[in-house]
């Protein structure tokens, strides 16, 4: 288990200028012929090193001379060829076995379809190559396969020709004119259905669009196609970026390790992020498709045209592309609700990661297994770091800076330093200290207090940065960040911010750099209320005991602060209850005021009315005690439901229209609020509400409502749940994407016996341990179910440990994702820590453990 360090990075000795590939796909194996034009970049290099894993090498030629075994060296994962010329032509023939590829990296089979996944290091499982992102190559690809088995043959770029061959075979020739790293290579072959469309770019070029899927699912591709066209238009309008090939293809496959992949001109997607219709997909699914389709499309410029110098620079393309897809979704839907969803996801996943044993900077300086670094930190915190620069520069300057970035680095493999250079060229402030966001880890805390001086009409704001030590317990330095604030008068209006002590990058944004800031704001005529970190302008934790939650919930004009006040008030209330206090009456009243305020838009209301999650509360505990949290949580829901029972019920009825399954913001908002209210009401334990929930299950035409009703029945009305679960299963057992939801409901259940049910469901005919979506739905949901996973018996830990070991032998990426469930280990009680420790040691000591799982488990145990 070897560690790789950024400081050891060197440019490649050789590069591959052109690569021409020929694939002959047969039932049991695929023959690959690879002709590379190599150029030497380091004049003193004498040996060409090609990466290769699990390849059956057949023949090699250098400049048409066939090599015998004495003329090269074959290591386990590399081929070394002596080479002392500036140019050479290497020809290699090797064989691969896609059917045996359960890791789903390289060329593999999903159902009957041959497809590839090469980021970050999968191409070396297809053929020998210099498999690193700073080697950019022009690829041509010939695919030969049975016409009957594989009527569809796809690769990157533009289609240059097809032909029918003997023995029922045919071929397709693809040429990608734009040099790219090998991780963006893709191939698909199979019997697929499709829908097609066209898009005319801003300069008038016509692009053929197609989405491929299993036959019979074509009708579920239309939302994805609409999303693709909207993305193409948005990137032209917002960033001036035009698509650059004649064809854009998307293929949906069922077995995929993550969401999707941005291969040049041939995106390959987890079918979860393509297929949707009103009967089978939830509103969240529709939103997810829109954003992932956009994300992969946006990579064409941020990732593909300009790529990463090495994998330490991953956030260069991922943080930026997430930022871009978040802005796209905000523009397509609601800016506020999108922002709240993004902040919520960041805090639930990234803050937790950043506080635990696997914390790392958005630009890590070492790794064991790069696949472990496609994390919430690299992606979502990376996007927040970009967003801070956006906030500092403002929309127009940011656009000028990205124009420079595209102009300066198109066609190159670069790093975050280059991106920052482009940003600095337009920034009103010096970004040197800001760069610490790239190299430090953990979430900073801002401790804020204030003092009002009536005699001079001044408000003194004191902001203290508390910077946690890193995972190695080393001290870290204060950050620079934009901090958006307001000082509010009695009626909610904002005092203009005037101060000599701090740089205001905008009217309401102060630029913080020091570890302690004392800022005097002038002309404040009476003691103001503080409104802090508006819009979540910096990814920090705020500590301030002066916040007037009820006032902010009711009056702040910043939607984020309104939400945040309710959220923090909820946390305080729940934590007091966890310590034995009665429910805070002021909280109940403020909650009721939001609930009954008819002027609040439905989606936003459903977001404000969500109680802080178990994960949020767990994260704040010094020693995790799930039962205490869970009980307080249930109690608070019950109190709220009983207090506002009739209001909630009548609001619920007003929102319910069983036949509404429209996919628009207003309908989605109504469903979200309806589901929130039903969830609160169900906790009241009232027979009539249970019956209502069951009727919603049967009558609703949208999956969002049906699935929520099913989940609530499962948790609160077990007698009614079994019939509904059977019905759901019968109705959808042939649709694997819906079965994922079924498994997730069962595995997320808070009821006793969940582990036994999950164990039994592994035998269900709809389950398959080799399909990542199903593993994530059943085993992953269980591991994320705090009530079941942290069960006092310790059986939850044991069960997940066994699954990690079992799945590691099949697919290490999925296994290491699952192993992340153990990352609260340092924060467990003595007893639970002992239980989990045994399981972690068991995993760590397992023979033949993958690097992926080893890296995660050893960090947790450290
Ligand atoms: N770039 C891919 C992720 C590849 C993950 C490899 N383990 C998808 C994306 O971020 O768009
Ligand atoms: Zn991405």
UniProtKB/TrEMBL annotation:
Keywords assigned by UniProt, alphabetized: Aminopeptidase, Hydrolase, Metal-binding, Metalloprotease, Protease, Zinc
Reported cofactor(s): Zn(2+)
Catalytic reactions on record: Release of an N-terminal amino acid, Xaa-|-Yaa- from a peptide, amide or arylamide. Xaa is preferably Ala, but may be most amino acids including Pro (slow action). When a terminal hydrophobic residue is followed by a prolyl residue, the two may be released as an intact Xaa-Pro dipeptide
GO molecular-function terms, A-Z: alanyl aminopeptidase activity; metallopeptidase activity; zinc ion binding
Enzyme class: hydrolase
Domain Aminopeptidase N-like N-terminal: 44-184
Biological-process GO terms, alphabetical: proteolysis
Enzyme Commission code: 3.4.11.2
Chain ranges of the Peptidase M1 alanyl aminopeptidase Ig-like fold domain: 443-543
Peptidase M1 membrane alanine aminopeptidase domain location: 224-437
Peptidase M1 alanyl aminopeptidase C-terminal domain location: 548-862
UniProt family annotation: Belongs to the peptidase M1 family.
The protein, known as: Aminopeptidase N
Species per Swiss-Prot/TrEMBL record: Sulfuricurvum kujiense (strain ATCC BAA-921 / DSM 16994 / JCM 11577 / YK-1)
């Amino acid at each position: 288990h070897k560690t790789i360090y950024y400081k050891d990075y060197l440019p490649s000795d050789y590069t591959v200028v052109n690569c021409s590939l020929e694939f002959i796909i047969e039932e049991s194996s695929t023959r690959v012929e690879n002709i590379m034009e190599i150029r030497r970049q380091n004049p003193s290099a004498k040996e060409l090193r090609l990466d290769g894993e699990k390849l059956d090498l057949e023949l090699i030629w250098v400049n048409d001379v066939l090599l015998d075994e004495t003329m090269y060296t074959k290591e386990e994962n590399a081929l070394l060829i002596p080479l002392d010329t500036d140019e050479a032509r290497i020809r290699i023939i090797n064989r691969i076995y896609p059917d045996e590829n359960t890791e789903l990296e390289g060329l593999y089979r999903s159902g009957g379809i041959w497809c590839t996944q090469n980021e970050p290091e999968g191409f070396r499982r297809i053929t020998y190559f210099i498999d690193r992102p700073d080697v950019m190559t022009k690829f041509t690809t010939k695919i030969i396969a049975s016409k009957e088995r594989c009527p569809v043959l796809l690769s990157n770029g533009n289609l240059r020709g097809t032909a029918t061959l003997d023995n029922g075979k045919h071929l397709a020739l693809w040429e990608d004119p734009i040099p790219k790293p090998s991780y963006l290579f893709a191939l698909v072959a199979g019997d697929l259905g499709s829908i097609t469309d066209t898009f005319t770019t801003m300069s008038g070029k016509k692009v053929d669009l197609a989405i491929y899927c299993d036959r019979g699912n074509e009708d579920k591709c239309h939302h994805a196609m609409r999303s693709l066209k909207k993305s193409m238009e948005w990137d032209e309008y917002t960033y001036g970026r035009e698509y650059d090939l004649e064809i854009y293809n998307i293929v949906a496959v069922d077995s995929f390790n993550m969401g999707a992949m941005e291969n040049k001109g041939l995106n390959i997607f987890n079918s979860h992020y393509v297929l949707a219709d009103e009967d089978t997909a939830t509103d969240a699914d529709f939103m997810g498709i829109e954003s992932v389709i956009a994300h992969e499309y946006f990579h064409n410029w941020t990732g593909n045209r300009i790529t990463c110098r090495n994998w330490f620079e991953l956030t260069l393309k991922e943080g930026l592309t997430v930022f871009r897809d978040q802005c796209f979704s905000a523009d397509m839907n609601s800016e506020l609700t999108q922002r709240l969803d993004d902040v919520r996801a960041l805090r639930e996943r990234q803050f937790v990661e950043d506080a635990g044993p696997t914390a790392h900077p958005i630009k890590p300086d070492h790794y064991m297994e790069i696949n472990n670094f496609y994390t919430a930190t690299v992606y979502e915190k990376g996007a927040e770091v970009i967003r801070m620069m956006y906030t500092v520069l403002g929309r127009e300057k940011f656009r000028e800076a990205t124009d420079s970035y595209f102009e300066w680095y198109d066609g190159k493999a670069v790093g975050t330093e280059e991106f920052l250079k482009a940003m600095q060229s337009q920034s009103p402030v010096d970004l040197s200290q800001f760069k610490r966001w790239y190299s430090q880890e953990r979430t900073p805390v801002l401790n804020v207090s204030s003092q009002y001086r009536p005699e001079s009409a001044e408000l003194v704001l004191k902001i203290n940065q508390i910077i946690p030590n890193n995972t190695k317990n080393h001290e870290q330095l204060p950050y620079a960040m934009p901090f958006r604030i307001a000082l509010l008068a009695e009626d909610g209006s904002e005092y203009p911010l005037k101060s000599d002590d701090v740089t205001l990058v905008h009217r309401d944004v102060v630029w913080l750099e020091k570890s302690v800031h004392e800022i005097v704001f002038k002309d404040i005529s009476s003691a103001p209320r503080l409104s802090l970190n508006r819009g979540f302008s910096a990814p920090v934790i705020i500590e301030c005991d002066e916040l007037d939650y009820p006032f902010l919930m009711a009056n702040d004009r910043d939607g984020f602060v309104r939400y945040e006040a309710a959220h923090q008030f909820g946390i305080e209330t729940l934590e007091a209850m966890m310590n034995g206090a009665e429910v805070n009456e002021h909280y109940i009243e403020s909650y009721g005021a939001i609930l009954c305020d008819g002027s609040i838009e439905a989606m936003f209301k459903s977001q404000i009315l969500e109680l802080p999650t178990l994960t949020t509360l767990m994260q704040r505990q010094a020693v995790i005690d799930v039962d205490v949290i869970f009980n307080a949580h249930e109690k608070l829901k019950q109190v709220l439901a009983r207090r506002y029972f009739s209001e909630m019920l009548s609001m619920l009825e007003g929102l319910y229209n069983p036949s509404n399954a429209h996919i628009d913001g207003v309908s989605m908002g109504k469903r979200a609020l309806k589901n929130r209210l039903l969830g609160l009401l169900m906790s009241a334990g009232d027979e009539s509400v249970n019956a209502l929930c069951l009727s919603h299950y049967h009558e609703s035409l949208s999956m969002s409502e049906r699935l929520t009703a099913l989940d609530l029945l499962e948790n609160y009305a077990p007698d009614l749940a079994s019939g509904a679960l059977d019905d759901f299963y019968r109705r959808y057992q042939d649709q694997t994407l819906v079965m994922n939801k079924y498994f997730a409901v069962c595995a997320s259940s808070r009821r006793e016996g969940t582990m036994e049910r999950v164990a039994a469901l592994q035998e269900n005919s709809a389950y398959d341990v080799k399909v990542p979506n199903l593993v994530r739905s059943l085993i992953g949901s269980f591991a994320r179910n705090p009530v079941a996973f942290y069960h006092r018996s310790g059986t939850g830990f044991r069960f997940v440990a066994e699954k990690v070991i079992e799945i590691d032998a099949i697919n290490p990426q999925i296994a290491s994702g699952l192993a992340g469930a153990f990352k609260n280990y340092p924060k467990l009680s003595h007893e639970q820590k002992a239980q989990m420790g045994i399981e972690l040691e068991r995993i760590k000591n397992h023979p033949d453990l993958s690097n992926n799982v080893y890296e995660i488990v050893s960090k947790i145990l450290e």
